[in-house]
């Protein structure tokens, strides 16, 4: 881990604490590193969102995957299938069955 802010440190602490509870008491936990979820579901208002957007549809799908998964502990990025994304979804795809359908680059501005 290499957090770059106080916020990142707090997120890392939460993930490590969840891992500890899993190992110590068997408490299952899935940690999601949620990208950019917009009230209006529009990723076109900021260039960063084109890489970090998580559509409402893909968010619902990912939560459903988490609830069905046979995973004791895991950390997963939560974004849509965005062209040029800089976060890797391969473990969410393999371990959770996550199959995001939306891509910010294919959305037209509203």
UniProtKB/TrEMBL annotation:
Protein name (database record): NAD-dependent glucose-6-phosphate dehydrogenase
Organism: Geodia barretti (Barrett's horny sponge)
InterPro entries referenced in this protein's UniProt entry, alphabetically: NAD(P)-bd_dom_sf
């Amino acid at each position: 881990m290499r957090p770059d802010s106080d916020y990142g440190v707090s997120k890392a602490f939460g993930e490590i604490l969840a891992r500890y509870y899993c190992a110590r008491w068997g408490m299952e936990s899935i940690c999601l590193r949620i990208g950019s979820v917009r009230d209006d579901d529009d990723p076109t208002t900021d260039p960063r969102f084109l890489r970090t957007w998580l559509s409402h549809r893909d968010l619902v799908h990912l939560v459903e995957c988490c609830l069905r998964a046979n995973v004791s502990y895991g950390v997963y990025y939560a974004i849509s299938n965005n062209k040029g994304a800089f976060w890797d979804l391969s473990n969410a795809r393999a371990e959770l069955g996550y199959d995001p359908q939306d891509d910010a680059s294919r959305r037209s501005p509203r």
